[in-house]
Design goal:
The protein has 151 residues and is α+β, with helices and mostly antiparallel strands. It has one domain: Hotdog Thioesterase (Thiol Ester Dehydrase, Chain A). The protein is 25% helix and 34% strand. The protein contains 4 helices and 6 strands, in the order E-E-H-H-H-H-E-E-E-E. The radius of gyration is 17 Å and the shape is elongated.
Length: 151
């Protein structure tokens, strides 16, 4: 599905995204090293066994965040967004572990006309991601500058 224009998004509309993803050790390793994050909680199983209450490697939360937003794009903003304006209220209530399968949902919270760009509008999306147990693992509100439908 292509993204929706500002005019097509309705406050309260909920998207339950079809894409689910089982997070692998490779996902976590590559993302963590590509972003130069040396945190041993993401890279060193022996450190985790000895120094972490979890006793195992935890998935980099920024990977979780990116996956949550990424799976929403096809249903919401693919080709119709101008820019992300900000992310607010970012939370990670539960850790993600290697092998967890994540699914995400998005709700349109707000929308308004842009004061400075008559061909665009601002939409606030609420994104949530859940593991296979139904536990919320990530949350944020994302403000996006969205194109209006061409006349």
């Amino acid at each position: 599905m292509a993204g929706l224009y500002f005019d097509e998004l309705e406050v309260g509309r909920k998207f339950v995204h079809d894409i689910r993803r089982t997070v692998t050790e490779t996902d976590n390793l590559l993302f963590t090293t590509l972003t130069h994050n040396p945190q041993p909680l993401h890279l060193d199983i022996e450190f985790c066994k000895e120094n972490s209450e979890f006793g195992e490697i935890l998935v980099n939360s920024i990977f979780t965040f990116g996956l949550m937003i990424g799976v929403s794009v096809g249903d919401t903003t693919l080709g119709t967004t101008v820019a992300n304006l900000g992310m607010d209220g970012v939370k990670f209530p539960k850790p993600v572990r290697i092998g967890d399968t994540l699914r995400s949902e998005t709700v349109v919270l707000e929308k308004r006309e842009s004061k400075s760009r008559p061909n665009d509008g601002i939409v606030v999306f609420e994104h949530r991601s859940f593991n296979q147990k139904g536990e919320e693992v990530a949350y944020c509100r994302r403000s996006a500058l969205m194109k209006k439908k061409p006349a």
